[in-house]
Specification:
2 domains, mainly alpha, MetI-like fold
């Protein structure tokens, strides 16, 4: 009996030690991960004064006097920040809606319909999607330029490019549709329902998690886009999104002065995405796990 108690006591201590170590590692990782965000937030409340000398890292990180001057600057009219923010929001919302519709339709067709060349088409799209998108930037730029969709017309051009190839992102959504029993479709077809009616009245209501996942992923891509957006809108300030415009701020000669404004603008950009993920994270996880099946 004493030996059993000792064994149980030893196992309990090992379990407690393992739990403590796991939490310690997670806390350290969290601190490292959150440090840049905390620094960005604190810097956004710093009022830059060129006459003040900073003595060390702590002085640079933590403002001695908190101020809303940087946020006031963004909304003061001295800069086009509101126009850039509107451009980013318009592109992200339109891309999210249109891309979600395209992906849902393509995924439903590939999941439910059987036609010649279906598997070959899916494999071709899957392989094609492995190539980085920036390889086509030059071709896309000249193509968009022919239709007047660069610089002043950069916003519809960016929306068009993002939506045009969205069908290739079918894989996760198709996997989710594959988990919905096809017997439901067969029963509805016997009752005289068309493919479109089955899709709209039966499949869509049961696919809320994957719809939210698809919409969030589609929203994030243009919201954080810098490379292609800077390429298409090059030289036209009114067509910039926030990422492109604020990057040009830190390229100015007044780096120290604009850096704190850059931080304030970054915080405002992060707020909508943070709220979306916090509100929809359960659906997001369910959509990822539900679509992670072999189709």
């Amino acid at each position: 009996m004493n030996s059993e108690k000792k064994i149980r006591s030893g196992m309990k201590k090992k379990k407690i030690f393992g739990t403590v170590m796991a939490y310690a590692v997670l806390i350290i990782i969290s601190i490292i991960w959150l440090f840049p965000f905390v620094g960005l937030t604190l810097q956004s409340f710093r009022s830059y004064d060129p006459n003040v000398e900073y003595g060390g890292m702590v002085d640079y990180l933590i403002p001695k006097h908190f101020s809303l001057d940087n946020y006031r600057f963004l909304f003061s009219g001295e800069t086009n920040y509101l126009i850039w923010y509107r451009n980013t929001l318009v592109i992200a919302v339109f891309v999210s809606i249109l891309q979600t519709i395209v992906i849902l339709c393509v995924s439903y067709a590939l999941s439910r319909m059987r036609f010649k060349g279906r598997k070959l088409l899916m494999r071709f799209w899957l392989i094609l999607g492995m190539f980085p998108g920036f390889l086509t930037m030059i071709c896309l730029y000249f193509l968009l330029k022919q239709f007047g969709l660069t610089q002043a017309g950069a916003i519809p051009g960016l929306i068009l490019v993002s939506v045009a190839s969205s069908g290739m992102g079918y894989y996760v959504c198709k996997g989710y549709f594959d988990t919905i029993p096809k017997a439901l479709d067969d029963a509805a077809r016997i009752d005289g329902a068309s493919r479109a009616r089955i899709f709209l009245t039966m499949i869509i209501p049961m696919s809320k998690p994957i719809i939210i996942y698809t919409a969030l992923v589609a929203f994030m891509a243009p919201w954080c886009d810098y490379i292609f957006a800077s390429y298409v809108a090059f030289g036209h300030d009114a067509s910039y999104n926030v990422a492109v415009a604020m990057t040009r701020w830190v390229w100015t000669n007044d780096y120290q002065g604009y850096f704190t404004r850059f931080c304030a603008g970054g915080i405002l950009v992060a707020i909508p995405v943070t709220i979306l993920f916090m509100a929809l994270q359960n659906y997001y996880v369910e959509g990822v796990t539900g679509g992670a099946v072999k189709g």
